[in-house]
Amino acid sequence: SSKHKAQHGFQFYNAAITEKVHRRSQLENDLRKVLAKKQLQLFYQPQVYLESGQVSGAEALLRWNHPSKEFVSPEEFIPVLESTGLIVSVGRWVARQALMQLKQWREQGLNLPRIAINVSAIQLQKDDLSSFLIETLKELDLTPADLEIEITESVFIDNDVIPKVLQEMHDFGFYLALDDFGTGYSSLSYLTRLPFNKIKLDRTFVNDVQTKASSEAMAKSLIALAKTLGFEVIAEGVEDSQQYAFLNDQGCDEAQGYFIGRPVASEQFIEQIEQFYKLNESKSFKSNQAG
Ligand code: C2E
Ligand code: MG
Ligand code: MG
Ligand code: MG
């Protein structure tokens, strides 16, 4: 039995790995109950056009209100959802919830060009997500241009299925963004072989632009490369006014990060945007170039 196998293999594990495996199966059990018990919630983080400071979109980020009140990061529970296949139903829930929120905000008068959701390569392989999205958009009276799909590179997306699915989504008119660009599995050849509209410059480059010459050079070059190839570029992890000004000067299109606003529950989103607009009115942080 699998129990027997696990016991037999025990001697090969060190304590840390055993702890990790145990926690993973605990999380898996908890996650199976999650959809039924409504423990999932979406937070929303604003994205803005650097030049105007106007909101360009909002990224929906999954939060798990674990019954123990312990904070469990998506970095930890998303992989468990992926390996169990639960990501398919959770992912559909995320898409539908985010689109309903977009519709509601617009009805409240917020000028929000689009909403962004994260989709992992596993979802593209295991689910007919395009059909689900098309149906949901029709039902809510929205269009594919209202939705941006951020492809997270937790696995190689360089297989047979993924390029076809992405092309199909692109042809439908969905906006495709390559998340965490410059790290992990991402490869420069994706840029020319897959139909992305936008790249999201990973926050590791953004965070150190003032302090590390190498990060500044990387950020500059990656923005220039992406712009030359005709992509829109959004920088993630923008935490202060200097980073914002630097990116604006480099011709980066959009920004997202704590400087503009943190991921918040939907009820706090509009208030947070208004605070950023007030700061933006002063224009004091907009450019390094003396004016
Ligand atoms: P991501 O898509 O790259 O999302 C950006 C992450 O950076 C978020 O972490 C966000 O809270 C964080 N962040 C935003 N601005 C700043 C900043 O200025 N400084 C710093 N230090 N961090 C910032 P979060 O919410 O913990 O999500 C982690 C990852 O989990 C996401 O990375 C995404 O890959 C994944 N994820 C989240 N929600 C979903 C989902 O609904 N579906 C899927 N498939 N993956 C998701
Ligand atoms: Mg993302
Ligand atoms: Mg990212
Ligand atoms: Mg990430």
From TrEMBL:
Domain of life: Bacteria
Limits of the EAL domain: 24-277
Name of the featured protein: PAS domain S-box-containing protein/diguanylate cyclase (GGDEF)-like protein
Organism lineage: Bacteria, Pseudomonadati, Pseudomonadota, Gammaproteobacteria, Oceanospirillales
